[in-house]
Design a protein that fits this description.
The chain has about 525 residues and is mostly helical. Helices cover about 75% and strands about 0% of the residues. Keywords: Membrane, Transmembrane, Transmembrane helix.
Length: about 525
């Protein structure tokens, strides 16, 4: 049921002996156009994740404009952030059918449309639809391709590449906070959202930069990676497990399906050639039939790949560590999102607005977050360091900061805790690497889609829950305490499952010895 990393070669029907030969990889892998992919992903994180981290500015404007409760108003921001991540598995279907480039361009148009339509909002419920749903779906259609493309183009320095690209979240949070503050002050929040929508059209340019690799380049990358990973003992023992799909993705059924599709298209072409003497209307109909047939083949292949990855005989959910990873994701992301949405209100309650205007606490998180992603990415790329252990240590630091944040009543104390939150949250750059270690590169798009979907559920309910607790207690303390405890539960799941995975083979070997 499970396949080792070396088995990736067999998934593509290659001879395993080929892996022992000296293979010259595509120069664009780990270099060349790969750095343009990093730049594209970096800009995507600035425009999407960075702007979402700055929504606390707009949240205060919406509270004053519509005079609704904090719990209800927080749903606007949480819907946008949550839907961006929740649609991940369904965006995997779009990627399978259309590719990353087309998916990202369409998403950029939707995101910009959501921002522009939100400028004409008459109530909070209108924002739910325009900003929460429309802009959220558009953001998700750009965000997942940006992450997946970096994983496809890099082999040796994946963690560093993901760290550099995702630092756009920190840069974006810092830049967008200042930009939205300026735009809201000078032009009002409605014009600010309209201008931000125009800026978001640059996501289409980022999508155009996502040039896909050919299947040959991907096969060479997998074979080179399998050779390099035989000489490294970096990853944890459980991270060498990958899922091996069968059924519709098997070699024989795929060949049969391709033969049938070629036969259908060939018959259409034969009719088209034989009917040259017919009227132009008939030829036009045949061309439409040929186009529809090709589109049907593409949709069937994409859906088969997507369906098998989630619901096939060897589903991703048979990997226990991956399931524990999903449970962790359900609780983790809200702990990071809640401070960005509610810190401006907390600062106002503590009468620290003057210091916060000089240097906002959310900007401190954003700036240190940049260094955290790069430094943690460099550390995890060291041969003697386990990416899994770096990931766990960063999580422990972050949950400690979330639990201690309500105890800080001064600007300096809050600034120190926010700096630690920013640095430890740099583990986000390691999430694609950890996910790929668990399920393999072949299933990265769908598996990471599931993980960010779980993060999206966490982001969807986190800020409204914190606002609801405030409406009841008139304090944010219990919001952070409960979020921190739930986060700790998720970390415990990550610690338990690897121990079970290691213990089971030992018990099995003991039973065999007794027999």
């Amino acid at each position: 049921m499970y396949a080792s990393r070396e088995d990736i070669v067999y998934d593509f029907g290659e001879d395993p002996k080929v892996g022992s030969k000296a293979i010259k990889p595509n120069p664009n892998i780990d270099g060349g156009w790969a750095w343009m992919i990093v730049l594209s992903s970096f800009l995507v994180h600035i425009l999407i994740m960075g702007s979402q981290m700055a929504l606390g500015i707009l949240n205060m404007e919406w509270l004053e404009e519509f005079n609704q409760s904090r719990g209800l108003t927080a749903w606007v921001s949480s819907l946008s952030m949550g839907i961006t991540l929740i649609v991940g598995p369904f965006i995997g279907l779009f990627i399978s059918m259309c590719g990353c480039r087309t998916t990202a361009i369409i998403g950029g148009i939707l995101n910009a449309l959501g921002w522009i339509l939100s400028a004409y909002a008459s109530n909070v419920h209108y924002l739910f639809l325009t900003f929460g749903v429309t802009a959220g779906i558009g953001s998700g259609m750009v965000y997942l391709p940006a992450v997946v493309m970096v994983g496809q183009y890099f082999q040796k320095r994946r963690a560093l590449a993901q760290g550099l690209s995702t630092t756009g979240t920190g840069f974006g949070a810092f830049l967008m906070t200042a930009l939205l503050k300026y735009l809201c002050t000078e032009f009002g929040w409605r014009n600010a959202m309209f201008i931000q929508g125009a800026i978001s059209l640059n996501l289409c340019v980022c999508g155009a930069l996502m040039r896909p690799l050919s299947p040959k380049d991907l096969r060479e990358k997998y074979m080179v990676r399998s050779d390099s990973e035989e000489n490294q003992a970096k990853a944890p023992s459980h991270s060498t497990e990958t899922i091996k799909s069968n059924g519709v993705l098997g070699e024989e059924p795929e060949k049969k399906e391709e033969a049938a599709n070629e036969e259908v298209l060939g018959s259409v072409q034969h009719i088209e050639i034989g009917g040259k003497s017919r009227s132009g209307r008939s030829m036009y109909g045949l061309r439409i039939l040929k186009t529809v047939s090709q589109l049907t083949v593409t949709v069937r292949k994409g859906f088969a790949l997507w369906y098998s990855s989630y619901f096939g005989a060897a589903s991703l959910f048979t990997n226990r560590v991956f399931v524990a990873f999903i449970i962790w994701a359900l609780f983790a992301y809200s702990s990071f999102v809640i401070p960005f949405i509610h810190l401006p209100e907390i600062v106002k309650q503590y009468n620290l607005s003057r210091q916060d205007n000089v240097f906002p606490l959310t900007s401190i998180i954003a700036i240190v977050h940049i260094f955290g992603k790069v430094i943690l990415g460099i550390i995890s790329d060291l041969p003697c360091i386990s990416t899994w252990n770096v990931f766990l240590m960063a999580n422990f630091t972050l949950v400690t900061c979330i639990l201690t944040l309500p105890l800080m009543q001064t600007y300096v104390g809050l600034a120190v805790v926010c700096a630690l939150i920013g640095f430890s949250s740099g583990y986000f750059s390691l999430m694609p690497v950890v996910t790929e270690d668990l399920v393999g590169t072949k299933h990265l798009a769908n598996a990471y889609g599931i993980i960010i979907c779980a993060n999206g559920i966490s982001a969807l309910f986190g800020p409204p829950f914190a606002g609801w607790i405030y409406d009841i207690t008139q304090k944010y303390d219990f919001s952070f305490y409960i979020a921190g405890l739930l986060y700790m539960v998720g970390i415990i799941f990550l610690l338990i499952q690897p121990c079970i995975q290691k213990k089971q083979p030992r018990e099995k070997s003991t039973e065999e010895a007794q027999v």
